[in-house]
Amino acid sequence: MTLQWTAVALFLYGEIAVNLILCIPFISAQRWRLVFSWRIWNWLSPYQNKGFFTMIMVLIVLFLDALREVQKYSGPEPMQDAKVNPNVYDHVHMKLFRAQRNLYISGFSLFLWLIMRRVVTLLNQVAVTLEDNAGLLTQMGSAVKAARQHQEDNLKLKRALLDDEKSMSAKNEQLKLEAEKLAGQLKAAEEAVRKSHTEVEAMKRQTKGLAQEYDRLLSEHHQLQNLQSDQDKKAQ
Questions:
Q1: Tens digits of per-residue pLDDT, 86-118?
Q2: Scanning 67, 146, 175, 205, which has its CA 20 to 30 A from the CA of 51?
Q3: Cα separation of 54 and 62, whole Å?
């Protein structure tokens, strides 16, 4: 195996190991997000896309080269030469095997490189989604607490209003009783005033009658005095 294909094979083994580690179930997406937020990744972030597409181009070139080799050694001309010379037959099959091996190595490397990028992206998206869900759950909890507090405040307000209504109804009943009592007292006072007016009128009539009787008696008294004085004059 040449140096370049040894490097590609090592790269493939590394991709397999990294993908297996990324797929470990007990490592959560939040932990991977913490790993991906290390300072070294921030430093490499301007070069990530360039490195990713460069590696894709390199792997595509190697894949096409391996595909060309497979087509070259699986064609009819090498097979005819191999049938004529047994040594050439072994050599052609060895070359074909190497070309097929290189084709698989480069193809799987390209495939796993794309898969690894996609897995990393999905892990970041899952972590962001979980953080957003946690924030939404916190906001929902706060909203539920606020709603419960608002409901409790409404219940307290309703109870206070009911108590106020009860107290107002009791006060109204008391005021009605007092108003009825005052109405009775007013009626009694009006009756007493009417009776007083009647008594005053009776006393006025009685006083008038007494005054008339007094005037009559006074006039009779004057008449008697006049008669008495006349009789005294006649007697002298």
A1: 566 667 778 888 888 888 998 999 999 888 888
A2: 67
A3: 12
Q: Which helix (H) or strand (E) holds 166?
A: helix 86-235
Does residue 82 register a pLDDT over 70?
A: no
Q: Between the CA of residue 31 and those of 35, 39, 117, 131, 135, what are the distances in Å?
A: 6, 15, 17, 12, 17
Instruction: Indicate whether this model's pTM tops 0.90.
Output: no
Structure tokens at 215: 């005037």
- Give residues with Cβ within 8 angstroms of 16, minimum separation 6: 112
CA angle 116, 40, 31 (to 5 degrees): 60
80 has a pLDDT exceeding 60 = no
Do 5 and 108 meet the contact criterion of CB atoms below 8 Å apart? no
